[in-house]
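worker-03 picked up job from queue 'complexes'. Input manifest follows; two sequence lines, order preserved.
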Amino acid sequence: MKNISPRTIIILLVLFGSLLYVLPSFHIDVWPHKKINLGLDLQGGMHLVLEVEAEKAVESTIERMRNDLRRELKTNHIKFANLDRKAFQIHLQVLGDESIDKFNKVLDDEFPEFRIASRKHNADQLSIVLDLPDSDVAEIKKKAAEQALETIRNRIDEFGVSEPDIRRQGDRRILIQLPGVKDPRRAKDLIGKTALLEFKLVDDRHSVEDAIKGKPPLGTEVLYQVAENRQTRRTTKTPYLVEKRTTLTGEYLTDARVNIDSQYNEPYVSIEFNKKGARLFERITETNVQRRLAIVLDKKIHSAPVIQERISGGEARITGSFTHEEAHDLAIVLRAGALPAPVHILEERTVGPSLGKDSIRKGVFSMIIGGILVIIFMVIYYQVAGLIADFALALNILLIAAGLAGFQATLTLPGIAGIILTIGMAVDANVLIFERIREELRVGKSPLAAVDAGYNKATLTILDANVTTLIAAVVLFQFGTGPVKGFAVTLSLGVIASLFTALIVSRQIFDSLLINRQLRSLKI
Amino acid sequence: MQFIQPDINIDFIGKRFTGFVISTTMILISLLSLLLHGGPKYGIDFAGGTVIQVKFNVPTTVKTIKETLEPIGILGASIQQYGDVTNNEYLIRADIAYKKLEGLSDQVQQALIQAISPEAASESSEIQPQSVATSEASDQTATTQTTSQEVPDDQKTQSLPAEVRRIEMVGPKVGKDLREKALLAMFFALLFITIYISGRFEFKWVVSAFMAAGMMGGVYFFKILNVSMPFLIVFALILAMILFWFLRLKYAMGAITALVHDVMITVGIFSIFDKEFTLPIVAALLTIIGYSLNDTIIVFDRIRENSRKLHRNSFDQVINKSINETLSRTILTSLTTLIVVIALFLFGGGIIHDFAFAMIIGVLIGTYSSIFVASPILLLWK
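worker-03 finished. Artifact:
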């Protein structure tokens, strides 16, 4: 050890650095504190791809504008008929010349955002179709997707999953990864719930039975209260006839909390309105004493208590036979707010924790078996040089592990396969070099010259061969999803690591053996 | 130790027509099998559908599971024993993607538990005395998780007679997207490799880059026109071959032909064994591309080196000598890679099983093709 070359220093630094990065994964807590991330297939968890039904957000915007338009027309005493929403359009007829003049003014002054899709003037009747410009529709859709993502993120944050990964995928898709989630069904319910809270007055003047049989009276609809008996798991549906008009929605909420009813020891959710909501609520309760007010969540009635007196202060409670979890989750979704549009599940992958453990065990086991066999083979075939290759191989695996921890990449099951494959292929670089050295030795060169020539000639070949594999790996990374991406990562790391170990590390070992130790012969 | 003697001289090039016949036969058999099976058998990743993996604590039969699942609306599911018989593990696969997935796994679990009770249910009630035997199933799965959460995870899985270990649902739209992405991935990998090979071996960086850019543009253009992706890729590959021929991109043509050859035969063997294509299999195919290319390039590299050194010899002799010189390395590397892939195949567990199977075929075919397919193609321009 008289002269330590720069290459030795680099090797030692890399070795030390990768040890530092690998140790935290084995519960030895040292500085970088970066553990190898396990993919959902290894640690268990849930992977969801949701699609935001953005059309619904556009429809509800246009529906709201239709209601505004109706109110505006009524206050201005404009005669109109057949005010309807068809998909993204509002159709209506305005009757009488005087009304038409007033209508044109209202349209210009109050509703400049409308685009006139078609306009037909017949005698004293105007048939008009209104819609929104395409750019506005696109904007609403984009906003809906963004807002849905934000809302879902809030809900998951409150639900308490460690290290969730939530991101947009394309225009309207949301990718959600929840590692180690214990109760996938509950998480799914929480994420997928639109959570549109509405307060609607119950119509007691008409009978529900008639409405179900025939057509519900104008301006009313039939909604159901669904109750589940917890012992028998049988559900009962109670119909209610309610006014279509929504008196108040969840958008005025400031808070929602779980409380326990002292009398029945049952959980309920207490909600708090903001100033505007509180005023609205006060007015509704004031003018509708002794009527029933239905609390509707996503078109399902939770309860329909009778209004006993005017309620001021902006507080209300949602009861229903909740379990504690249900109440807790309902409070979360109400706090996080409603989704601007419903979402549906496009893709779901749930892996239980026991399966993940199995996969790790089997993967590591086959890695050890394969590795040992290769190591034995190399020693038998190449003797001393085989030992050097084996050392390079071990270092190779260490480097991959350090790379995974350092780049915070995710190790998946195909990723383990990638490492195992790298074991096979990392040997290749050494085999190439050794075969070259053997060729040179046969020509009669001295060991030192043979090693030198062998490395020189093999280097370019090894580079070419590995760069092409790297190309395949990078393309795989670009196009792959989830587990496949994990495979691409370990394969790329493996290729780079094997370049380093074969071209630099094993070379250095040869050199120090041949130059420093003055070995005359080489067992290869 | 040495398997291959240094002075070995097998006349590979002389046997190239035998190789041609063997390769053509294998490809024809692959195509025939694909034709008979109506295309590749797509797993749920690409076709959409639902897969549920269930582990039972007591032995059960495929028939029982089938009968249990029909009432809850899972019709025509294919049910397979998974792994060892003693594992009592089954894979249930249904073609439909359930839009209402909420609670599906619970329903399945519940139905299965009820089917194999009562002894199973009473057995578990010993461990969880707080729940009545008959309502045990519903309690576990119902939203009342308070009781089950107190039980440690391990104990819980032991006490449950049936455990849903994995559920995967892919909607049909996602399946189509993934299929197209996978095809594009393979195609782009081939194009980039073309540029690299033509550049490194014949210094035709510019020509090959222009060609690849043109083809990429073409594929994107037709993709916008909604041309079916598989046809598009096949057409693009044929066009690429014609272009290689006229632009005299020898090495690229040799390498790419060998790769397409390998992938086709692997796909064909998968089809013969009626195995499914999933995302990990695509990863395996791409690795095979990388691996086979590795082999091919090492031979090509020697050919390039030797044609400078031995310019008096004929090109066939140069090629033959290069194959022989690299033969020892080719065999050794294939051997070490095969060792690990076989270890993976035997011990890696169910999910990785098919992946390893594809790799075994790929390594064997890839080694063969670098000798008998890629190199002889260089002689086409004589």
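worker-03 released lock.
DSSP finds 15 helices and four strands in chain B.
Residues 49-170 of chain B form one domain.
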